[in-house]
Amino acid sequence: MFEKVLIANRGEIALRIHRACREMGIRTVAVHSTADDNAMHVRLADESVCIGPPPARDSYLNIPAILSAAAITGADAIHPGLGFLAESADFAAMVEEHGFAFIGPSAEHIRLMGDKVTAKRAAVELGIPVVPGSDGRLADVAAAADWAARIGYPVLVKAAGGGGGRGMRVARSAGEIATAVPAAQGEAKAFFGNGEVYLERYLAKPRHIEVQILADGQGGVIHLGERDCSLQRKHQKILEETPSPALNAAERQQLLALATAAIGKLGYKSAGTLEFLYQDGAFFFIEMNTRLQVEHPISEMVSGIDLVREQIRIAAGAPLGYRQDDVKLTGHAIECRVNAENPETFAPSPGCVTSYHVPGGLGVRVDSALYQGYIVPPHYDSLVAKLIVHGASRNECLMRLRRALEEYVIAGIETTIPLHQRLVAAPDFVNGDYDIHWLERFLARA
Ligand code: ADP
Q1: Which helix H or strand E contains 200, and what residues bound it?
Q2: In angstroms, what is the span from residue 326 Cα to ligand 1's centroid?
Q3: Domains in the chain: how many in total?
Q4: Which residues belong to the active site?
């Protein structure tokens, strides 16, 4: 097993990884920008190294600085967390070339699944149904209009290298294709440095349902159930739950068996998620995330399995510690993403946390790097906390979540807690009756 792990990330996810390491008796190295001198992940780690100024490209994305930090501290392995370098195949390869273990999948699998066009092709080969769409990248507007006529409007223009809901445009007619293609290309080029796009049928009322997989690359593959992440704003997840209130037992079984078999065939290693859209009883693959996800704690709450611990064990060469029969998924779990944003306009709200009180009690977990007096810097993602609640039933989980949201105090900055309070009181949400467009309609009505 590793003796020392460098955590190439910040915020709550750096803390999450630190916690798993400590519980395994592994020492930790934090890296941080000058904006994060006082961050909790730096305070709790055994050692820390400053890797650059505040902009992420000069610090958390600075591969030479991160590899040097690993070398001077004598770390054995690097965990990339999520975001930043977590889906950089080049980073994974360089980590291994420099003699450190990469806590994640192979560079080859990150590369294959990081490009959505090659990922969809791989999915088809693995026997997974995909959203009907263009058979690869589109050269220009004319090629897109051609495909759209074949698929049928409305269509979604998507960036091959996209992520975080960026680089996507809906087109409802040939006229709209002419503006949607350059708009998606421009955004994709600006955010991902890759302007390639493809087309998909735009589903009218799907749910986003994803499967959490753990695989050891030695034949061991298990799933930890599915997550319903349909509550989204601008294609970004806001609240997630497991199990999905939309699936019956037979549909769930079909989805989980399909995903597990595909990952087995792929020979994948580490934690991963297969994302699907679900509409009218059918599942369509949209992408695979070759990393830990923000919403992973809800799967941990219903399974009792520590996903980060398993990632670390697998990276150290150990076989999976569980067979599928050992995995008992019990009760219901919900996660609320708490962002430092105005809950109505969603304008970022960095600044000093003047007072902080965390909810507790049975079945309540808070993953956050906040503390009283901490100054949320303006340079990074606005996610500052995740409130995760578990209950024996969905109803118990909802009652507990309402209670926990009431207790949670984060003063000095604005947060999305009031939005979550409105959501958990909305009859459609209480009934589990929502698709990926529901939240935007709900916000427009208010
Ligand atoms: P990203 O990598 O940016 O998260 P995804 O491909 O995972 O992009 O899609 C993000 C979200 O966009 C999905 O959860 C869903 O809400 C919406 N979406 C993606 N593809 C489609 C589609 N073909 N039809 C309707 N909505 C879609």
Answers
A1: strand 197-201
A2: 33
A3: 3
A4: 291
